[in-house]
Amino acid sequence: MSDLREGINPRKEATFTLGNRIRRVIWNLAYAILFRPSPRPCHAWRSAILRLFGAEIGRGCHIYPKVKIWAPWNLDVHDEGSAADDVTLYSMAKITIGKRAIVSQGAHLCTGTHDYTDPNFQLIAIPITIGEEAWVCTEAFIGPGVTVGAGAVIGARAVATKDQPEWMVCAGNPCKPLRPREMRA
Hints:
Structural class: alpha/beta
Number of helices: 2
Radius of gyration: 17 Å
Order of helices and strands: HHEEEEEEEEEEEEEEEEEEE
Oligomer: single chain
Strand content: 25-35%
């Protein structure tokens, strides 16, 4: 069951269920009191807090204290995945960060947008997937519904509004593949 209420007029009614809004209030309190002030090395502590709020967090994940997470119950971080300080995880829909994937400082993963052709400007939430061993570089933007392929590099300040292929270095606005990502032996 989705927390997003579809087919309503968001100018007159809440877009998200009451349960979702209450959980976000409780999460924001826990974030302010327990998550955000925690010391940088306390990754296990923050992982435990996220799990309490429904996130799926693998082993050895590094989620830093200044990560902004909209709804942790829509977050799935696989083993050794990381999200650095000042990352925004706007998780109206599920965000998956693959094994050993890195989301660097200031990156913004945004699962929400609006149907600008709808007179009610209806909200749409579409999941994002960051493949294993991918790297979303500093201040990159990943838009709703985008899949970043395994091993891909999304360059600093890139704007990815379409899927990006596996094991490619991608950059620009709009983000596009530039060359293969070749690993040294």
